[in-house]
Write a structure and sequence with these properties.
By secondary structure, this protein is of the alpha/beta class. It contains six helices and seven strands; from the N terminus they run βαβαββαβαβαβα. The chain has a five-stranded parallel sheet with strand order 2-1-3-6-7. A two-stranded antiparallel sheet has the order 4-5.
Amino acid sequence: MEFLIVEDNSFILRELKEEVMKIMKRNDPSFSVERCVSAQSYNDARRFIDGKSYDVILLDHRMPVENAVELEKDYLEYNKRLRNIGYSLIPMIRARERSTADISTAIIGTSSFSDAAIREDLGPQYGTQPLGIGLYEPNFKINKSGDLKDLEQALHVIWPVYQFDKILRNK
């Protein structure tokens, strides 16, 4: 199972990556850190998505267009660079699936914004479908602050589907 974690905050990124590793090691002892890559800006995420398909993408919504890690210690300057653009990558991920006949990518939204706030950014099409069905919605949403139990629950739903799809593709 291949993961892409899109998160601009270095501390949160490290926490998410550690949690993914811990959960996946329980499901698959051979799971390694090489199967879990990360992007810290919109453009970095776009390059990863253009270049390869992922089984699971953890996707933040508010991030800089270009990498701004060097500014993280200057909160005000860093905050000026943030844009509500992460979920606008979802249609591109879905288009890649259709054009390459790849397996569906499970997208786990990690935004701390409400659906109403995201709808303001993405327009009225966001939130019109049940979670995970619409073109603009992630399959799951988790709260990235706290103990990340939502992440474990989402991965426990995704894992059996991934295993079943893997069996079907090997026939």
